[in-house]
Design a protein that fits this description.
Layout lengths: L8 E9 L3 E6 L3 E6 L12 E9 L5 E4 L3 H6 L2 H12 L3 E2 L7 H8 L3 H13 L3 E4 L2 E4 L5
Parallel strand pairs: 3-5
Antiparallel strand pairs: 1-2, 1-4, 2-3, 4-5, 6-8, 7-8
């Protein structure tokens, strides 16, 4: 049996979709789970993608992430709020780093500084595009 370490890059074959997430086959030898609330891209059954070991469970199964573990640790609650707002508004929000602080607070429930930090991280990880009149969720993420 292959030994896995947290943070290790693995090949994942997408299996079935459950209420908790997506079952996967890791390196063709071990069962794993991608949690639904941590998947920021479209995946299809049978698809082979790169993943990362997030946790080795006592039963031998793995919790897996599609982002390197550093990204998982650094995603903030504000980034999640922005992603949820983008998804609720067809992938576009007419808010930028030039928007009034009160607008950002009213629309997203966060300070302008928190908003700027969050969109900076999402942009750096190629999750959003920053446009002149707002932010857009990139196609591959929806």
């Amino acid at each position: 049996m292959e030994e896995f370490e947290v943070g290790q890059e693995v090949e994942v074959v997408v299996g079935s979709f459950t209420k908790l997430g997506i079952t996967v086959l890791v390196n063709e030898v071990c069962e794993g789970l991608l949690y639904a609330n941590e998947v920021y891209q479209r995946v299809e059954e049978g698809q082979r993608i790169k993943g990362y070991v997030k946790k080795v469970r006592e039963d031998g199964k793995l919790d897996v992430s599609l982002q390197p573990i550093g990204f998982r640790n650094s995603i903030t609650k504000f980034q999640v709020q922005i992603l949820n707002a983008l998804r609720a508004h067809n992938g576009f929000l007419p808010i930028t780093d030039k928007s009034e602080p009160d607008t950002i607070k009213f629309e997203l429930g966060m300070s302008k500084k928190a908003f700027k930090n969050a969109i900076g991280g999402l942009y750096k990880n190629r999750v959003i595009a920053i446009e002149e009149n707002g932010i857009r969720l990139l196609e591959h993420v929806q």
